[in-house]
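Task 17 of the worksheet. Students: predict the tertiary structure of the chain below and write it out as structure tokens. Keep your answer in the requested format; marks are given for formatting as well as content.
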Amino acid sequence: MDLRDKSILIVKPSSLGDIVHTLPVVHTLKRAVPGCRIGWIVQKAFAPILEQDPAVDRVYPIGISSTSEPQAGRLAYLRAFLETVVTLRELRRLLRQAPYDLVLDLQASFRSGLLGLSNPGGVRIGFADARELNPLFQHQRIQVPAACSQAQEKNLLFSSYLGCPVGKEDFYLCTGEQADRRAGEFLARHGVAENDTVVYLHAAARWQTKFWHQERWAELADRLAQAGLRVVFGGSGKEREYLAQIVNRMAQAFMIAAGELDLATSAALLKRSALYIGLDSGPMHMAALAAVPVVALFGPTHPERVGPYKVAHQIVRNSRLDCLGCRKRSCAHLACMEGISVDMVHAAAQQLLRGTAKREGRCS
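Model answer:
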């Protein structure tokens, strides 16, 4: 497909990990066809990552409440419906001013199909196996091979379909000079020198079945700090209280970035780190895209499908279980995460730290 002078609208509102998986697609298109114009419809919370990326020409932030969060409440669906109506009206107004030639629906849901319709005209492209009647919204449908189960590789099918094969140079994470400076200032306030080795810990996730024991996080962090590593706990402001319960069990020095840094600055802090240790979450995928080695604790999800992509990593899981990858958000025994010991995670971290070499980023 000839993309010269074409405008392309990406529909991928959430979640953070899914957005990170879409960035290489955009980087590929922009590299292959520098003159194309790329817009992106995204939830407001994740817009800062896209606003720092020169491959994205315009960001359309939206605010539609999640209906799947545990705290969503009984009125979640009504609230989301009303917010969707308002969002569609506003998008229609904005996109009418400068319509896009192509609409790439990588979210693959009923709602994303509606969002794609807000663009007047254009060719809509989506996955043939999408859920929630999404294929009915599309003019063209991309077939997904049975062997293609990894989330990142599935998204890259869009690049191939459009005649723009992905390259190694398309895997990078942009944060911007301001975010890089703020991350440096955060580390300086905590006495971190330029040559200190920073390890980024991410101990929280959306699913309760992904959580690991707080006392084990504390013991792991103490071991790392005793070895001279600078330990920082990342996350959002709403996770700060949970992280406080971890660090209260620690004897060594630590840093908490959760609640102090915005998303772009948190990403910049990740890029400054020598290692990510954490749960299956959006920051894990940010670390991977930034070429930061990853130690990932997996239980109810499949590392083969959503694990770190094309980066040095170690997957830690209780491999003796038959129920791994159950994708349950609630569980009576949590044996998958219970079976992960501090020794297992620490050994994986040591192995990656020994192999860590100086990395050069594609984009600041």
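Marker's comment: The first strand starts at residue 7 and ends at 11. The radius of gyration is 21 Å.
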